[in-house]
Design goal:
Layout (H helix, E strand, L loop, with lengths): L1 H7 L4 H30 L15 H4 L2 H9 L5 H17 L8 H8 L2 H11 L1 H14 L1 H6 L1 H21 L3 H22 L2 H32 L10 H4 L1 H15 L5 H15 L6 H5 L4 H30 L15 H19 L2 H27 L2
Length: 386
């Protein structure tokens, strides 16, 4: 990704590529410390033959008996919290979450359209994958202790990303900040530790991959014709390019979370899961019943992010596609067959996952989330003595 941006990027490509590299490097160093440190602690485990002597096996490390043994070996308290925070530093940079997000808008603005699509649709999801696959299963007690910090980071990312997107003049930078806002729901789903929230976060990763790829391609199509991305200079594109406007409208409505499109399912499940975390039977409430007010506050603020997203998405549609037709855009050619070939499968997937999300849950996540959540809950309960 560094070389793709640095070689084929825009005027400030070197700055954006180096910034991307340095942020990733810092996170990777933290993750390397966690990787080596956890292995060294497993060498002190006694009484579990398949782990004694050291292991990197994530499945074994997530087992409740191994978790208890790691605690007895010293990976507990402040050490576990430090390891958890170092792992989360790496993954929150990749998500990215505020305040570790500043590399993303620069990388997107300077990257060519195909590279932005790969960056948003695939690379950002490595952060969410790491959170659910490494940070939370390996350090459940630390995750439980630091749930409020993770929740605040998630909610701030949702609101701040939406507000920044609303303030942008560059079309592509607006889409980049919307990614910061939407990926905040993934972090919120992890912080709340309910099955609905986790399922919603995983669905959000997939749906955002579809939507963000489509959004950046939509920006690239108009940039190829106008050679600028200044929102204030657009207007009336729907009269000139109706087919392109139709594809763009699906992308925008999916991004703002319209029911019937894939962007709705993930967001609503994370929000429902957040409200469910305030119930008496949730993991967070079992550990400390006084958390009800804090959880509800985070849930309500996160709901405001949905409203802000609808606001800046609809405002952008109005500014770019509708209004009086501008003379300088009358000669713009309609989308080509090649562009339709790219947009069609993304549109189909956005609609299909919005109408039939059960396909995704049944095929991909039900068994995984049940197994992950069951192990995580057992580890947390074992530590808390519940």
């Amino acid at each position: 990704m560094y070389f793709l941006i640095c070689i084929w990027g825009g005027p400030r490509k070197e700055y954006a590529a180096i910034k991307f590299f340095l942020y990733t490097l810092v996170g990777s160093i933290g993750l390397l410390i966690v990787l080596i440190g956890t292995y060294l602690y497993t060498r002190n485990i006694v009484g579990i033959p398949d782990v004694a002597g050291g292991t990197f096996d994530l499945v074994k490390l997530a087992r409740p008996d191994v978790q208890k043994a790691l605690g007895a070996a010293g990976l507990v308290g402040g050490v576990a919290k430090a390891f958890f925070l170092l792992a989360m530093l790496a993954f929150l940079i990749k998500v990215p979450s505020v305040p570790l997000h500043t590399w993303l808008p620069d990388a997107h603005v300077e990257a060519p359209t195909p590279i932005s699509m790969i960056l948003a649709a695939i690379l950002l999801k490595m952060g969410g994958y790491g959170i659910f696959r490494i940070a939370y299963p390996l350090f459940p007690k630390a995750a439980m202790s630091l749930w409020l910090l993770m929740g605040i980071i998630a909610v701030v990312s949702i609101i701040y990303g939406a507000l920044c997107a609303m303030a942008q003049r560059d079309f592509k930078r607006l889409v980049a900040y919307s990614s910061v806002s939407h990926m905040g729901f993934v972090v919120l789903g992890a912080a709340m530790m309910t099955e609905s929230a986790v399922n919603g976060a995983l669905f959000m990763m997939v749906s955002h991959g579809i939507i963000s790829a489509m959004m950046f391609f939509v920006v690239g199509v108009i940039y190829d014709r106008a050679h600028h991305r200044e929102l204030s200079r657009f207007g009336g594109i729907a009269s000139t390019m109706p087919v392109y406007t139709g594809f763009s409208t699906v992308a925008f409505f999916a991004n703002l979370g319209l029911p019937g499109l894939c962007g709705f399912i993930g967001e609503v499940m994370v929000l429902l899961g957040t409200f469910q975390a305030a119930r008496s039977g949730s993991l967070l409430m079992l550990a400390d019943p006084t958390r009800h007010t804090a959880i509800m506050t985070l849930a309500i603020i996160a709901c405001l992010g949905v409203i802000l997203t609808a606001g800046y998405m609809l405002w952008t549609i109005q500014r770019v596609y509708f209004g009086p037709q501008r003379p300088e855009y009358k000669a713009f050619p309609e989308v080509t067959n090649r562009e339709i070939l790219v947009l069609t499968p993304l549109t189909v997937m956005a609609i299909l996952l919005g109408i039939l999300p059960a396909i995704f849950f049944f095929v991909f996540t039900d068994q995984t989330v049940n197994a992950w959540y069951g192990l995580f809950a057992k580890s947390v309960q074992a530590f808390a003595g519940l």
